[in-house]
Amino acid sequence: MKIDCHKLIVLLNLVLIVLVGCLLLRDNFPRHSRGFPHNPPRERMFDELGLSLGQQSRLKENREASRTRMESFMRATEEKRRAVAQQLSADEIDMKKVNALHGELKTLMNQLEDTQLQDILKVREILCQEKFRQFSARIGKMMPGGRPLIGMGKDGPKMPPPMEGNEDGFDNER
User: Fold this and answer.
1) Which of 29, 38, 89, 104 is the most buried (most CB within 10 A)?
2) Which fold has domain 55-154?
């Protein structure tokens, strides 16, 4: 039983393609459909924090509303950035238009910051202070860069140390 070397190489390549395809496709299916229990990190965190069903529900609603607002802000800021780039790449730059678009972009960014703060304050209303600290620290671990919500950590607010020789933290020399 002699197998042609060429046929063996073709067969091994097919097997390799099928294996790679299976590995790539498996990530397109939810974890629970692959035999893993369905318990996403947020659900697990809610359980670990001991949050009531009402708190969990309010946090989920807040998150969905926040996500919708953020997507809207991101679309609007991207449109403004494109418009500024378009103006800057024109043969003749109309500085009035550029400044107006840039002002609109800054206004959007300020509104985004205000909205993010309001969303965090809503979370603070839902949770007691200790649960908020724990929640913030855990969310921070889930986020890129591992940063907690606005200066909150497991030990409470984190403030930068005052500048050397200046107890109030402000540079009074300017």
Assistant:
1) 104
2) Four Helix Bundle (Hemerythrin (Met), subunit A) (1.20.120)
